[in-house]
User: Fold these one by one.
Assistant:
Number 1:
Amino acid sequence: MDIEAVDVGVLIDDREIVAGQSLTCRPNTMTALVGPSGCGKTTLLHCVGLLQRPTFGRVLVDGADTSSWSSRRVRQFWRDNAAFVIQDYGIVDDESVAYNVTMSATLFTNRLRADQSRLEAALDRTGLAGRGGDRASHLSGGEKQRLAIARAIYKDAAVVLVDEPTASLDSANRTLVVDLFADRAAAGCTVIIATHDEEMMAACDSLHTVSRQRSDTTAKVAR
Ligand SMILES: Nc1ncnc2c1ncn2[C@@H]1O[C@H](COP(=O)(O)OP(=O)(O)OP(=O)(O)O)[C@@H](O)[C@H]1O
Ligand SMILES: [Mg+2]
């Protein structure tokens, strides 16, 4: 799926948080949103993931202007097309790791209606093999981060939106996570990542510097 921001700006309490940002993110590519702390990376990521409506400009999904989308249409996009890996986003602490990856335990039996082999593959890829039965609250910060990534892998969504996935990871796990997202892009996903991490930036196809000046994406390499 193509995700495009056209002159996106965000004002909060009359303060310009993000201004005039234009970028296009395509399938098969990993785009980094970069810049110093506070420059608006998370805010712009939320805009392109339709979590937040920009004050100015438009976000297009496969060429369709989402500014006219109903909240129902936006929820449909989240459900069917998007996976978010955002800090503290939607991990249910009282539930098992497996539940959090698949989000499909039935209310009454609590039995997973999940695809077991996909679940195991997602846990395996994120270094959480054998942890499916553990409570999410028993995971460390870094393990929770990888749990959120396992969920995105399991969901196999067309668009993957990620905020600082390597913050607080050691270098072995950082490399693991960088490779996981690079694999998602290679599998055809549109991957968009707000990051400070040099290793992550190096793996991305294009870097978009977020600033309060109008800016565009720098393509690094043609894949
Ligand atoms: N809901 C809000 N209300 C007020 N100010 C906000 C809000 N959300 C963001 N901001 C401000 O907007 C600016 C950009 O924030 P944002 O979180 O997008 O930055 P960032 O580039 O992701 O920073 P970091 O690298 O530290 O995560 C900051 O100055 C922040 O304080
Ligand atoms: Mg941020």
Number 2:
Amino acid sequence: MTTHMPPAAGVMGQFSLAGKRALVTGASRGLGRTIALALAEAGADLALVARSAEPLAAVAGEIEALGRQAIAIRADLTVTLERRQAVEAAYAALGRVDVLVCNAGISPIWKRSAKVTEEEWDVIMDTNVKAAFFLCTDVGGRMCDQGGGAIITLASVAAVVGTPRMAAYGMSKAAIAQMTRTLALEWAPQHVRVNAIAPGYIETDMTSGLLNHPYWGAAIRQATPMGRAGQPQEIAGIAVYLASPASSFATGQLFIVDGGAVAG
Ligand SMILES: NC(=O)c1ccc[n+]([C@@H]2O[C@H](COP(=O)([O-])OP(=O)(O)OC[C@H]3O[C@@H](n4cnc5c(N)ncnc54)[C@H](OP(=O)(O)O)[C@@H]3O)[C@@H](O)[C@H]2O)c1
């Protein structure tokens, strides 16, 4: 079954990624690592990208222990040549890419907008927007040529609601949401589906400083109806859903997973 065909009967079978090949960026830790392991568990072979070779190799080892193929590709996605070479290396190893998880991202600052420097702005936009756009267009274009595919981007609740002290990050994730809709419309006829996961606060390296802060950590939990931050594993199911034929009629959407934070 291809990712774009209506699912056959039997709901659990619709979530299978057997025979699929997936490229996951930012796979060395956090959400990317968890999503990569989940796709492998569902049957996919993986190409993993990040800047840190050692943790990436460790994740590749975890995937191989599940009986799937995994290649670790060290690259800084903000460097055009490295990004292009990473995509080439993924295609060389896997032959094709059926699923792209465009997950690599950064949130390095927590400060009032008036204090944000141009250098901070540039590094956030280069990573979260520019690298993501050109990665998606590179791989998505090839998916159109091959007859279909599924792209998952990582937006954020900060794309949906204003988040004081995270202006540049929130704007970068709003850009991802808009990119997701636009690419979905452009590529729907070629059976390439593009959807975004928009998590609330999930416990990873990215959020540990905030969530462990006595004041901000408590404030975030208080603003979340479920009263807690999420765990990376709580994003795994939606990622497998969006990568698989189970979501064959879903495209151009933002899937919010946030413990109820933006429901009110
Ligand atoms: N955690 C949350 O609460 C949350 C909420 C909403 C959205 N998100 C989004 O989810 C995604 C993953 O977040 P996370 O919490 O898992 O973050 P994380 O733990 O900090 O991991 C980020 C990943 O991106 C990679 N990366 C960063 N810059 C890169 C670059 N220039 N080139 C290649 N790889 C790069 C990192 O690896 P290296 O450092 O080794 O390169 C790492 O694997 C991000 O897009 C984030 O914005 C997270």
